[in-house]
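Issue: copy button drops trailing tokens. Both records pasted manually instead:
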Amino acid sequence: MSQRNREGKRGARERLREQRERDRARAKRKRTLGVLGAVVAVLGAAVGVGIVASRTDDDSGRSSSALVPPRGAVGKGRLVIPSGKSEKSAQEGKAGKAGPVTLTVYEDFRCPGCKQFEDVFRKTVHELQDTGRMRVEYHLVTIIDGNLGGTGSLRAANAAACAQDKDPAKFRAYHDVLYRHQSQETRDTYADNGRLIKLADQVPGLVTPAFRRCVEDGRHDAWVRKSNDVFAHSGYASTPTVLLGGKSIYGDPKKPLSPNKLKRMVLAAARG
């Protein structure tokens, strides 16, 4: 074999070896880049989940979708706002005295029948509360919003729950203000948070930055909706629904209720 042929074969082998080295290096780079890409993708996904979770956690504290009972709410699911002296406080210093009777009231701040009940019985209810003979448990519902549309029942109930957050005495006072200023049910004036806050000025010390935020953010909206849902499945069909010791006492034309009759019934229930 000639020298030229031997050199030609060595050159071909060298070129083949170099090409194989280049192919192996290229394959190694691809594998390395693939691994790095997978790591970046996983890290990116983790960061994305962290942002979503962070936003979800952050939003949940401010969103009205969170069910937040007002301070002092009682009963199953904490859906009841109590008003009046507790049994313990009513008996303090008065050994042998019976505890307060419970009046349960399902009300809607847009409901004209509820306003009528409040206007007629307000003074008597307060008297029985203040003497420790009766305690009222309020269930706030939104039946008029459901029947006529609008959001005034919900907005007013949320605002009343915000007043409860401040002080139970503020709830009672603001509750009464809302019924005194109730508009015709077809006029959804309580849908305006500004009006609700302006009316709250009539209750000394109620309007604070915290109260404003509570009203404007709808802090207790989900709580009100839950209260209304429970009412819708309770078997009661209208507002106001008024129970004394669990028995309906209002709305039967054959057995009309008067303030004096309510007093007698409370005193009889306390004795019996």
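Record 2 (pasted manually too):
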Amino acid sequence: MEPIIIVLIILVVLVFIALIKTIQVIPQASAAIVERFGRYTRTLNAGLNIVVPFIDTIRNRIDLREQVVPFPPQPVITQDNLVVNIDTVIYYQVTDARAATYEVASYIQAIEQLTVTTLRNIIGGMDLERTLTSREEINAALRGVLDEATGKWGIRVNRVELKAIEPPTSIQDSMEKQMRADRDKRAAILQAEGVRQSEILRAEGEKQSAILRAEGEAKAAALRAEGEAQAIRTVFESIHAGDPDQKLLSYQYLQMLPKIAEGDANKLWIVPSEIGDALKGLSGAFGNFGPMAGGPAPANGKELREQPRID
């Protein structure tokens, strides 16, 4: 009985192993390459698949999702004989599992070497300044070459990025000094422009202030002259309305004589010819005017001669 039991156990184990090898479950976004006696038979897609046990074998399982592969820094010589280290990142996707398995031994290594050689060809035709400022151009050229070369491998390169472009340390120091000098230059220019603009604004303000001050003085003078004219007009109208006689006018003439003699610079003063008529009016008002101090009154209303002032 024991040999029969052992045989049955062996048969059960073999059946179980056969079932496991027969049923193959492929995850989503994956593919599997099936070989029969070492020859490619078919590609298993996602889901439940049946294969012939002990005859069909799974050669390779490939992830069909987009992959990201960073490559280590590669030294590249520019057109002006400067060595720069460039880090690259490749975004690729397997589109044909069969080609990716049989057309190239290791598509990751092949893509890396192709990226290095292509970078050297592209950067070799650029100087350092253009290399640092033309990342988009380099990315586009590199992607075009990689996509064309990897198409037969069942690989599609979706994107190529340059992570870093590192020039030599001495060049970095020189570039930093140049950038610092440029910043200082721009700062000096901006400061000079600010001072210039400030002076212009100050001059404009002073100009506007002077214009407004002159306009204010002109308006004030016009208003003052208009007020004086109005005052004279009012006085003139009041005099005519009051109808003054000769006596009042003569008295006003005498009141104005001290004001005429005011001032230290007046060495002589002129008596108007109308003063004789004024004195005649006062003479008639007070009866007899009498002799004035310092000499007789003018006879017959004659004009007084110019007398020097005695300080």
